[in-house]
Design goal:
mainly beta, about 120 residues, four-stranded antiparallel beta sheet
Length: about 120
């Protein structure tokens, strides 16, 4: 069983930056792919970025060039560096762990509780 806890959300103005962190209760480095997802009110949960067990990454088109996913396998912490934030990035952000590296949230087995990101114009 893997427990995940996100932190680092907050309120920023457009153009600002935030770094989200996701701490895992158990070792995930070589076993799981990790992803960041977000859900805005009234919308479905969508994949933002993932990193697999080899370190390969992929991003949703709207965040490419602005967001960077990384992981510290020694500390079992997943990060999402978000630059040039825009109002449309406003959502609850979740980290997840699973055996398949994908932007589709369905295969992920373990989820955190989420951290809110609010971007004002």
């Amino acid at each position: 069983q893997v427990q995940l806890m996100e932190s680092g959300g907050g309120s920023v103005q457009a153009g600002g930056s935030l770094r989200l962190s996701c701490a895992a209760s158990a070792y995930t480095g070589s076993s799981y792919s990790m992803g960041w997802f977000r859900q805005a009110p009234g919308k479905e949960r969508e994949g933002v970025a993932f990193i697999d067990s080899t370190g390969d990454t992929n991003y949703e088109d709207s965040v490419k060039g602005r967001f960077t996913i990384s992981r510290d396998t020694a500390k079992d912490i997943l990060y999402l560096h978000m630059n040039n934030l825009q109002p449309e990035d406003t959502a609850m952000y979740y980290c997840a762990a699973g055996s398949i590296a994908t932007l589709d949230p369905t295969p992920y087995s373990y989820w955190g509780q989420g951290t809110q990101v609010t971007v004002s114009s």
